[in-house]
Design goal:
Blueprint lengths: L9 H26 L2 H16 L2 E4 L4 E3 L5 E10 L8 E9 L2 H6 L5 E2 L1 E5 L2 E3 H10 L10 E2 L3 E9 L4 E9 L8 E11 L2 E11 L7 E12 L2 E16 L2 E17 L2 E16 L2 E13 L6 E9 L3 E9 L20 E9 L6 E8 L2 E8 H9 L11 E11 L2 E10 L6
Parallel strand pairs: 5-8, 6-9, 7-9
Antiparallel strand pairs: 1-3, 2-3, 3-4, 4-6, 4-7, 9-10, 10-11, 11-12, 12-13, 13-14, 14-15, 15-16, 16-17, 17-18, 18-19, 19-20, 20-21, 21-22, 22-23, 23-24
Protein name: AsmA family protein
Organism: Lysobacter arvi
Length: 421
């Protein structure tokens, strides 16, 4: 037979009930007190996120959270850095997260987020890539799902000698296995050069090897001239030891050079693997074509381009013909229909204001020298009243030139740029 249950006197039962109720109320009061401190909630979440990512993440500003409806957490003055790195890879005035209850209950099993908003995020690209280099290799990086998308205002990205600021971006939604589209406005800045842009981008999916397309308006501003263009870019996303970028990148644009009363329309294209590594952009090998009218020549070439704290460009190619709008070449050069092989080598500021080395040939005639693009542009702008000779420095050698009825053989001419008006 079962032993009879012990019989407790009513006063003792009341004391045990009161003790249990007191413990429950005390636990509830402690939980409410702890939860009433948003900074404590923020510290806990940032500590867990930092441990998972191998980052030190802090939020020194006032934090907020909401548990009604869709839970929301707002963090202010957020700083994230790789331990030991003096430069934060990310800073933001405000980060707002909205997470469904199902995501919270899943404890990492579900990465669905309703919406993310970032105010004034500042991303340091070299610091980001230093952190990425320390991450263990993973075949399947888990990406979150953003059902209501992402918004960025007043963003900035710093590279090596350049930055992109005034970034405003909207992404309606984000899913790891679906197509993604976004709209971005911003301004690329290096030295005195400004390149504002307004583009729309789309990916077949956010993964390495996925297709990427970008189309929009870009304007190069380098007073006193400007160059608005309508561009489109395509390729496949790349992420590897040599940096992030685009494989099979193809960029085409319809552009117009404008300076005072001068308007020169032309089309150009660039192709090659694009990489961004430690803040430096590089395209090598680079293919380039230009189709122009008037004083803009038709050319094609191959070479390499890199851009960090300065611009380096080397292009070896061919001018298909001597533009009719340029001063006529003397015979027999002007009578020849041969193409004109050229080599261009530039190292300097991004606005192409430094000296460019030039080699230009036609048949047995060759010019070896240099020029400065601003001087050439001024010469083009006043071509109807300027000297028939372009502002070049260098040496021209030719076996024969006919001038004013005279034939000169074994010609060797030194060119010097004239800075006088």
């Amino acid at each position: 037979m079962a032993a009879p249950e012990p019989h407790l006197p009513p006063p003792r039962r009341r004391r045990i009930g009161l003790l249990a109720l007191s413990i429950a109320l005390a636990s509830l009061a402690f939980a409410l007190h702890w939860a009433s401190r948003p900074e404590r909630v923020a510290r806990l979440i940032l500590a867990q996120a930092g441990a998972a990512l191998g980052l030190e993440i802090t939020a020194s500003g006032a934090s907020e959270y909401r548990v009604r409806g869709t839970p929301m957490l707002t963090l202010r003055n957020v700083v994230a850095r790789k331990p030991g790195d003096p430069t934060p890879l990310l800073r933001a005035d405000r980060i707002r997260l909205e997470l469904p209850w199902s995501t919270i209950r899943a404890r990492g099993g579900d990465l669905t987020v309703r919406r993310i908003e970032l105010d004034a995020p500042h991303l340091d690209l070299p610091a980001l890539q230093r952190w990425l280099a320390t991450r263990p290799p993973s075949k399947e990086a888990r990406l979150p799902t953003l059902t209501d998308g992402l918004r960025i205002v007043r963003g900035r990205v710093d590279g090596d000698g350049w930055h992109v600021d005034a970034i405003h971006a909207d992404m309606p939604s984000f899913h790891p296995d679906r197509a993604v589209r976004a709209h971005a406005i911003g301004r690329f800045v290096t030295g005195a050069l400004r390149i504002p842009f307004d583009v729309h981008a789309a990916m077949t999916r956010p993964a390495t090897g996925a297709g990427l397309g970008v189309v929009g308006n870009v304007t190069v501003l380098s007073p006193p001239w400007t160059m608005p263009m309508r561009m489109q870019l395509s390729g496949r996303l790349h992420n590897g030891g040599d940096g992030i970028g685009v494989n099979g990148m193809r960029l085409g644009a319809d552009a117009t050079y404008r300076n005072g009363d001068t308007d020169l329309a032309f089309t150009y294209g660039l192709a090659g693997p694009l990489r961004v590594h430690q803040g430096t952009l590089r395209i090598a090998p680079l293919g380039a074509v230009v189709y122009g009218t008037g004083t803009v020549p038709n050319l094609q070439g191959r070479g390499a381009l890199s851009f960090g704290d300065s611009l380096a460009l080397r292009l070896v190619g061919t001018l298909s013909s001597w533009p009719r709008a340029w001063p006529a070449l003397p015979p027999p050069l002007g009578e020849s229909t041969s193409p004109l092989p050229f080599t261009i080598d530039y190292r300097g500021a991004a606005d192409l204001s430094a000296t460019t080395a030039l080699r230009l040939e036609r048949d047995a005639t060759r010019f070896d020298g240099s020029f400065r693009l601003p001087a050439i542009l001024r010469w083009i702008d006043t071509l109807d009243r300027a000297s028939p000779l372009p502002p070049l420095n260098g040496r021209l050698s030719s076996p024969r030139i006919d001038i004013a009825g005279a034939t000169l053989e074994g010609v060797d001419v030194e060119f010097g740029e004239d800075e006088a008006p």
